[in-house]
Specification:
By secondary structure, the chain is of the alpha/beta class. It is built from 15 helices and eleven strands. The chain is globular and about 60 Å long.
Length: 385
């Protein structure tokens, strides 16, 4: 999609509600929840996509970010039953899953010795024997082995369970993890905040208020985080706007979310498979509307292992400015649910070419979105060959 001038978008729009929204976006004014719903109900893909591209260009020019990262997934054994999850195994079925020891996880870290990775992302199931002390020891070991590696870890679901089991407040638990080396939080576990939807898909885990409290407390302690939304299942447009609005309100308060990540529900091998999946068209509309509504989130991420490389590349024309990272085949959460990428790994060269081939500029970032290197199309990265 070629960028269309905002004046031309406004001029070509005959619907007065949509025209008014486009004019507000031109003036850099916040759109309301009602206007967000109007975009879902009436905004065609070409309209919302052109507006989202306009906003993203103003924020980032043609830059698209990525980082060099890898994942550690300590276990897929979990005490919770989330009906959308294809990844976890209940504790009584733990023989079907995996449980990594501290040494096995350190072996994963040591595998990257001498390689230019900047972040390790630690998330997994909620295992009753992998408690707060266990993970503090892991963080301390990683920090001692590689002090410059950014440690991002643990969804609010994992943290809520850890803190309750340790009989600590959220602030006490997060401070303990921070002292051990934790530097930021991922955005997982948010799903959809509406209680009637959570009751259907993940009734037994931390609720919306608990998720938001954990992230707000992390922000107060100087730890930024990401925010997610799981879409394409039982929720409707009102639930989506409510979810994004609650995140937008917290971002107004703390300004410490690094990015917003819409996550597509994948229907393979789970209790909700009968729902099927939304179309690629709906994916792109969701990204575009998120860019327009989430006006205080500078970065909008498409998680390429979930969408697939080509679809993630397409999202760069619908407001997305971040593709996550190189991953290096270390995450199974989406591949086990039937995502496009069954072995998610890209070299730095691969991800740069993906970005550059649609006329964007590839920029390596750190975990806080500081720019580390701008890759021009003629450059190569010998370290990744």
């Amino acid at each position: 999609m070629q960028l269309t001038g905002i004046d031309e978008i406004i001029e070509q729009t005959t619907d007065q509600e949509l025209k008014s929204i486009a004019q507000k976006i031109k003036r850099n004014e916040r759109i309301t929840e009602a206007e967000g719903l109007t975009l879902f109900e009436k905004g065609e893909l070409s309209f919302v996509g052109s507006l989202a591209n306009y906003v993203a260009q103003n924020l980032h020019q043609n830059k698209v970010y990525f980082n060099r990262n890898f994942h550690i997934e300590p276990t897929n054994v979990c005490v919770f039953t989330c009906h959308f999850c294809s990844y976890s195994r209940l504790y009584k079925q733990r023989d079907e899953g995996w449980e990594l020891s501290l040494e096995q996880m350190m072996d994963i870290v040591r595998k990257y010795d001498g390689q230019p990775v900047t972040e390790v992302h630690i998330v997994g199931g909620v295992h009753p024997k992998m408690n707060l002390e266990f993970f503090c020891e892991l963080l301390e070991k990683i920090r001692a082995h590689r002090p410059g590696l950014h440690l991002k870890g643990f969804t609010a679901v994992e943290l809520d369970y850890m803190f309750r089991k340790a009989k600590l407040s959220v602030q006490e638990g997060l401070q303990k993890l921070k002292d051990a080396g934790l530097q930021s939080l991922p955005g997982g576990g948010a799903e959809i905040f509406a209680p009637e939807i959570r009751k259907k898909i993940c009734a037994d885990k931390v609720d919306a208020e608990g998720w938001l409290q954990i992230h707000e407390t992390a922000h107060q302690l100087g730890m930024p985080s990401n925010a997610t939304m799981l879409y394409g299942h039982y929720e409707n447009d009102t639930h989506r706007i409510d979810h994004m609005s609650r995140l937008r309100q917290l971002q107004d308060k703390t300004n410490a979310f690094n990015c917003f990540i819409p996550l597509k529900y994948r229907s393979g091998n789970n209790d909700m498979s009968h729902l099927g999946e939304v179309s690629l068209l709906e994916d792109m509309r969701l990204y575009a509307i998120a860019r327009l509504f989430m006006d205080n989130f500078k970065n909008l991420k498409a998680y390429w292992p979930m969408l697939g490389r080509q679809n993630a590349q397409l999202s760069l024309s619908f407001g997305v400015n971040d593709l996550d990272g190189t991953i290096d085949d270390t995450t199974k959460i989406y591949s086990m649910a039937g995502a496009e990428e069954q072995s998610p790994a890209m070299s730095t060269d691969d991800i740069c070419r993906l970005i550059q081939s649609v006329g964007k500029v590839a920029v390596e970032r750190d975990s806080r979105y500081n720019e580390l290197k701008v890759y021009h199309s003629e450059e190569t990265t010998p370290a990744d060959r």
